Amino acid sequence: MKALVKEKSEVGLKLQEVDKPKIKSDEVLIKVKATAICGTDLHIWNWDTWASKTIKPPMTVGHEFMGEVIEIGDNVKGLELGDRVSAESHIVGSISRNARAGKLHLDPDTVNLGVDRDGAFAEFVSIPFRNIVKLPDSVDDEMGAILDPFGNAIHATLSFDLVGEDVLITGAGPIGIMSAAIALHVGARKVLITDINDDRLSLAKTVSAVETLNPSKENIKDKMKSMGLKEGFDVGLEMSGSEIALDQMIDSMLMGGNVALLGLPSDTINLDLSKLIFKALNIKSIYGREMFETWYKGLALIDSGLDVKKVITHSFHYTEFEKAFQLLNEGKAGKVILNWC
Fold it and tell me: Alpha-carbon distance 14 to 7, whole Å?
């Protein structure tokens, strides 16, 4: 089968012929129909510090996908051939304290699809059946392919009570943009998203009625004043992985405010802990999704009328993957789909 592979320690990926996966008794084989490129995949493409320490080539990458069940293991329950599905990309164990307590997203034995084991940028992928999420007819193929990052946005955004709160989001990538839409949908009062890329800010405004700011051109304190904020933002969602953005967020928070950190830095950053302490900020680091409550909430939010589909800006055949990654590296795209059919 065809697959996108990190062949060796260098920038880029290779389209190669690899063996079709063989499933275990508790797994299903999925014919991949659509995949989405994640920020993690961009780190792997660019072979930055994090990627070079984490990925062990050769590795088929990719973890955001949807497809059709074509083979079922002997011990699989609740699935049928032909089911349209997506999947939780964090494959957890069962013996750690957190796993036994039902906190699956905190299991230290987690194996990541497309990072620790061969992933979904391929014609076929094998997945444990417990990780499979059936897709209702209301979720089309492209939306099904981005439910994983949509889940990241849900996990981060709903970490704190947002009703009537003022929210600052730093980083107008796809997850930040979806987070803004979620925050407004569930009752936040004012939501501001910041980025130094004006194209991304324009995209954010097409997805929801969010306030936007380019901190390289405007002063965030002036923007806060025009929005009617007197003391600072109640909730901060850091989605960029930028040291500068995190520093600006801390300066803009209300005393005792809540901050969720999801953005992954490309390298080590400097952080003045005294600023966090003197503002008495509550910090929560976000890793993936809460299994499987986040998936339930995501599908429920879609059913309730939340529409983030416009965050998808481009769609390519998988053979055009180089063009897709180039657009993302240039900051000229939102969510990008690779089609495998």
Answer: 7
Measured at the alpha carbon of residue 62, what is the angle toward residues 142 and 205, in degrees to the nearest 5?
45
Non-local (6+) Cβ contacts of 155 within 8 A are: 286, 288, 289, 290, 294
Yes or no: domain 160-285 corresponds to CATH 3.80.10.10: no
CATH for 2-145+308-339 (3.90.180.10, 2.60.120.10, 3.40.50.2300, 3.30.70.1350): 3.90.180.10
* 287: helix, strand or coil: coil
The Cα 185–Cα 307 span in angstroms is: 10
Does the pTM surpass 0.85? The reply is yes
Whether residue 58 is preceded by a cis peptide bond, meaning omega within 30 degrees of 0, is yes
Could you report the per-residue pLDDT of 164-188, keeping only the tens digit for each? 999 999 999 999 999 999 999 999 9
Any bridge partners for residue 317, and if so which? 339
Q: How far is residue 115's CA from residue 92's CA, in Å, rounded to a whole number?
A: 14
55 DSSP 8-state letter: -
The domain locations on the chain are 2-145+308-339, 160-285
Q: Name the residues annotated as catalytic.
A: 40, 43
Evaluate whether 210 touches 229 at the Cβ level (below 8 Å). Answer: no
HSE of 88, CA atoms in CB hemisphere, 13 A: 24
Beta-strand runs (E) in 83-201: 84-87, 90-91, 111-112, 124-128, 132-134, 166-170, 190-194
- pLDDT value for 268: 84
Q: Which carries the bigger pLDDT value, residue 13 or residue 263?
A: 13
CB contact at 8 A, 89 and 38: no
Question: Distance (Å, rounded) from C-alpha 210 to C-alpha 183?
Answer: 10
Q: What are phi and psi of 121, to 5 degrees?
A: -80, 70
Confidence class of residue 216 from pLDDT cuts 50, 70 and 90?
very high
